Amino acid sequence: MILFVPAVFCTYAQSVVFDVDTAYASGYYNDGADIPCTNHLSNNGTMAYTIKWSKTEFLPTGWEASFCDKVNCWIPSVTTKTFSLNANEESIMKVLARTNNNPGIGTVRINVTSTDDENINLNVYYVVTAQEATGIGKVQNLKDISIYPIPAREFITVIANPSIKATRMEIYNVLGQRLKTELFSSDKNNRIDLNIQELDKGMYFARVYTQNGEVYTKQFTKE
After folding, report:
1. Per-residue confidence band for 136, with pLDDT thresholds at 50, 70 and 90
2. Please, what is the Cα angle at 105 between 60 and 101, to 5 degrees?
3. Distance, CA of 101 to CA of 96 (rounded, Å)
4. Looking at residue 134, what is its pLDDT?
5. CA angle at residue 206 from 58 to 202, to 5 degrees?
6. How many CA atoms lie less than 13 Å away from 100 in the CB half-sphere?
7. Rounded distance between C-alpha atoms, residue 14 and residue 59, angstroms
8. How far apart are the first and last CA of the chain?
9. Which domains does the chain have, with CATH numbers?
10. pLDDT at 1
């Protein structure tokens, strides 16, 4: 007689989770205000956890980043702290980027672990873009910039609406490192066809600059 034993598969459900894996924020580098980038950490389990967060910064020269949890907003020099997260409790997890009058794209990585559960080991990113405050009060229309295909594999095409008078485009990774620079030309119908075969798989940002000093930032993914 052959005995069949049914297979049982167990799936571990993470009880401590962030709202999003990557949080985005944008603001102005020359208006004197910090740029907040907000996320939340939730404990959906039935027990309290001691949470430890550690901060790693990939920031433009001159930038600083404070981190806020449920306990406090810590000064930029603080890179790790612990706090208790009770069952069914949520904690704010926010980066405050201080540009000190420097433009650019900055990234902060927060790693979260717990001594109560070795399965809790999360990495989340905060991506902050700072551009010039012109005082004009114009709201940028991201529809003025088109990027395709998304996701991309070998090439991307970037098209700028002629009305914004785009001059150049820069490609950045999530660490805020500039990887490529290309110029727009009216002779090419304000279009850039860019070879990205050498880029690793992942998320990137295209920053388009205009004659008026405006900066448009759009995200794309390479497979």
Report:
1. very low
2. 60
3. 15
4. 53
5. 65
6. 9
7. 30
8. 50
9. 16-131 (2.60.40.10), 142-222 (2.60.40.1930)
10. 42
Determine the Cα angle at 161 with ends 158 and 133, to 5°.
95
Q: Tokens 């459900």, residue?
A: 13
pLDDT tens across 27-45, in order? 888 778 899 999 999 999 9
* pLDDT for residue 140: 57
Structure token digits, residue 38: 């907000």
Q: Which residues, listed in sequence order, are joined to residue 125 by a DSSP beta bridge?
A: 22, 109
Question: How confident is residue 189, by pLDDT bands cut at 50, 70 and 90?
Answer: confident
The answer to whether residues 217 and 209 touch, using CB atoms and an 8 Å cutoff, is no
221's tokens: 């993914």
- 12 has a pLDDT exceeding 80: no
Q: Are 181 and 170 in contact (CB under 8 A)?
A: yes
Secondary structure in 3-state letters for the chain: CCCCCCCCCCCCCCCEEECCCEEEEEEECCCCCCEEEEEEEEECCCCCEEEEEEEEEECCCCCEEEEECCCCEECCCCCEEEEEECCCCEEEEEEEEECCCCCEEEEEEEEEEECCCCCCEEEEEEEEEEECCCCCCCCCCHHHEEEECCCECCEEEEEECHHHCEEEEEEEECCCCEEEEEECCHHHCCEEEEECCCCCCEEEEEEEEECCCCEEEEEEEEC
Residue 97 pLDDT greater than 80, yes or no? yes
